[in-house]
Specification:
By secondary structure, the chain is of the alpha+beta class. The protein is built from eleven helices and twelve strands. α4 (44-60) runs antiparallel to α5 (69-88) and α8 (190-207) packs across α9 (230-255). Bound molecules: iron/sulfur cluster (SF4).
Length: 382
């Protein structure tokens, strides 16, 4: 069983960028902090986000020669090639290579990332001796801040000294606003807001100065300013320290066997939809079985009761689902019958226990079809 193979250990430090996620589901963050490899492949967009972050970091370290266009383009290509090499060695990720084909707006993201990198590089230009130029003390890129006991800490992307005071900025490769259409002004993602407010409190501890402004900087468009007050920042930091203490007590209780692992989990459609530990999370599957009226991720777990390999290179199957109350079968259409795309599908047969993750539901026909994120795991892998 996969869950039993996942290691659990106390969380040494909570990063402001993960604090909200940790409150949402402690189990996912504890498994991640313990160094467990994800059980599902990260999306190509997440991989590209890492590339963008590395590009901005290189720009911030003054490695892009004042933002020269050819230098930035070369660095982008090098980073993408490296990422694709990493992906190509994984049986469940090689179909996502090249990223330019698996991400529909790859080109838009590339152009925006390179433009932002040029701005950062111009800020971080090196001096005549070749060293990255330093601004006033405690300003610049990648500034480390932490609480006195080190339990909350992380790097601030950029600290600048403006005429009216210190400004903290954090670069984001995705949208900084909540998705969906709603009346009124757009709402900033809570996790990003709390991240910056925690940075403000930690910066004050390090330097004795409260920032005058906190900014989220998307790849495209203007920075979004996050309003905060000092009392709120202090309170949030106190809460984060207390949360980590309580979380580690709960983790320790699980490790000595006086609390169940599932009590660390908070399964919900929102928490679980991007979680890469779904195959190993009993709490997730249990919650799905108890309430199938909410929009859980389109995953199917069960036993193959019919399977047809079509002449067009596709596979259709009918799966008798486990743990579902009012629908006992799922039909999955058009899985690619190819050893590179789905290595485990080659050994699947009628009677195999199977998990299929990342499907696309068709609400009219009540069946599922493949997406670029679809991943198959057979029973002996669970
Ligand atoms: S699947 Fe859901 S409940 Fe389980 S660890 Fe992931 S986020 Fe938490």
């Amino acid at each position: 069983m996969i869950q039993e193979k996942l290691i659990l250990s106390p969380v040494r430090r909570v990063s402001p960028s993960r604090y909200t996620a940790m409150r949402n589901c402690l189990l996912r963050e504890a498994w991640t902090a313990a160094g467990n490899e994800p059980l599902l492949p990260p999306s190509p967009v997440a991989e590209l986000g890492t590339v963008i972050h590395e590009l901005l970091e290189a720009a911030g370290k003054g490695n892009l020669e004042n933002g020269a266009d050819d230098k930035i383009q070369r660095m982008w290509l090098d980073l993408v090639v490296l990422a694709e090499k990493r992906m190509a060695v994984s049986a469940v990720r090689r179909h996502q290579v090249p990223l330019s084909r698996s991400i529909p707006d790859y080109e838009v993201r590339r152009i925006r990332a390179c433009r932002r990198a040029a701005e950062v590089a111009a800020f971080a230009v090196r001096d005549h001796g070749g060293k990255a130029r330093h601004g006033p003390e405690h300003t610049g890129l990648e500034i480390w801040v932490e609480s006195p006991n080190g339990q909350v800490g992380g790097y601030i992307d950029l600290v600048t000294k403006k005429r009216d005071g210190i400004v903290l900025s954090d670069y984001k490769s995705g949208s900084v606003m909540l998705p969906g259409k709603r009346a009124g002004p757009e709402i900033v993602r809570q996790a990003y807001k709390e991240q910056l407010i925690l940075y403000a409190a930690l910066y004050q501890i390090k330097c004795g100065v409260w920032p005058v402004r906190l900014e989220l900087v998307p790849l495209h468009g203007v920075a979004v300013v996050i309003a905060y007050d000092e009392g709120e920042a202090r309170r949030l930091l106190t809460e984060a320290v207390a949360f980590l203490r309580d979380a580690n007590q709960r983790i320790a209780d699980v490790m000595i066997g006086c609390r169940k692992l599932t009590t660390l989990a908070s399964p919900s459609p929102d928490n679980c939809k991007h979680c890469l530990f779904r195959p190993g999370c009993h709490a997730y599957w249990e919650a799905r079985s108890q309430n199938d009226r909410v929009p859980w991720p389109a995953d199917v777990r069960g036993v193959i009761c019919e399977m047809t390999r079509l002449r067009n290179g596709k596979v259709c199957m009918r799966v008798a689902m486990e743990q579902v109350t009012d629908q006992s079968f799922a039909s999955i259409r058009s899985l690619t019958n190819n050893g590179i795309r789905h290595p485990l599908l080659q050994t699947a047969h009628q009677g195999s226990k199977i998990d299929v993750y990342g499907l696309m539901p068709n609400y009219r026909s009540k069946d599922y079809s493949e997406t670029r994120d679809t991943t198959i795991i057979l029973k002996h892998e669970r």
